[in-house]
Amino acid sequence: MSGITFSAWLRDAQRAHGSLPADLIQTLEVTADACRRISAAIGQGALAGVLGAAGSANVQGEDQKKLDVISNDILLDVHSSGGHLAGMASEEMDDPFPIPDGAPRGRYLLLFDPLDGSSNIDINVSVGTIFSVLEAPAGSNAAEVAPFLQPGTAQVAAGYAVYGPSTQLILTLGHGVHAFTLDRRAAGEAATAGEFILTQEGMTIPAETQEFAINMSNQRFWEAPVQRYVDELLAGKAGVRGRDFNMRWVAAMVADVHRILTRGGVFLYPLDSKTAAKGGKLRLMYEANPMSWLVEQAGGAASTGRQRILDIAPTGLHQRVPVILGSRAEVERVAGYHQGE
Length: 341
Ligand SMILES: O=P(O)(O)OC[C@H]1O[C@](O)(COP(=O)(O)O)[C@@H](O)[C@@H]1O
Ligand SMILES: [Mg+2]
Ligand SMILES: [Mg+2]
What we know:
It contains seven helices and 17 strands.
């Protein structure tokens, strides 16, 4: 173990790149603190009565779990004292949440999916938090949607926490992708107890893979290019690909993307006739953009099938898009099929 804490690493990155403003460092440190608290809440599970439904629905009409609400509240709470953020936007809230009056306003906008894969909570399987940081345009009002509607290429930081057998924080500032692991030992047991510690610098996704991730139950709803691609994977050695492929689906984007950053693979939540009217299943601002930047920074690619995800000009805070990301050669092949190749 390196023993380099997240805060120390951020300060090293500031020295190395000379372009990491103090309020961006604060944004990331406070977000890491929120993830530590969410990890603790999740870790209490059935002991603390935090499992199960909240009895409410979010802006997208989806039933909320208690931990969706708890995670959202933790992120709002830790960031509300202000100084570093102008405002926040969450998958769980209809409207942007500007830093409250009276607290100092900063220049960054934080967007998050407070708990990703929340249907996994009650079965004790990995979930996560995804975040994206943008700079608020000068003179903009973070109570409005407009300042948040920036393409993925404008992100200044993106990352996620995965709450699995260990809790990890994965981050990009545009200079590669780095992993930090929460030292879960009790205070007093170790000097770094409670800290995120650097455990991998420069995660990379191999260009080729033999593993794919897709919800096969949607097969009959997919468009022809995805039908063709998956048929070819399933044909294995006997088909045009000439080799067998394995399949995994955790049903938490964080966990599926984490596997791809760790050992390669391709993830697809493509356009299908069930979700076409909404534009797709996954959310551009809270899921697709931060994950696409991380994947590109690790040498992979991310596309809707028709365009690079990071180039999409957003039209709504809760906009949904098709997502195909991971090993570059596979993403390019699927995009090629969409272009009629
Ligand atoms: O249940 P499905 O259709 O397989 O969808 C799984 C996808 O839905 C999501 O769980 C949506 O995220 P939320 O839990 O944040 O709503 C993704 O993480 C995951 O990839
Ligand atoms: Mg999600
Ligand atoms: Mg969520």
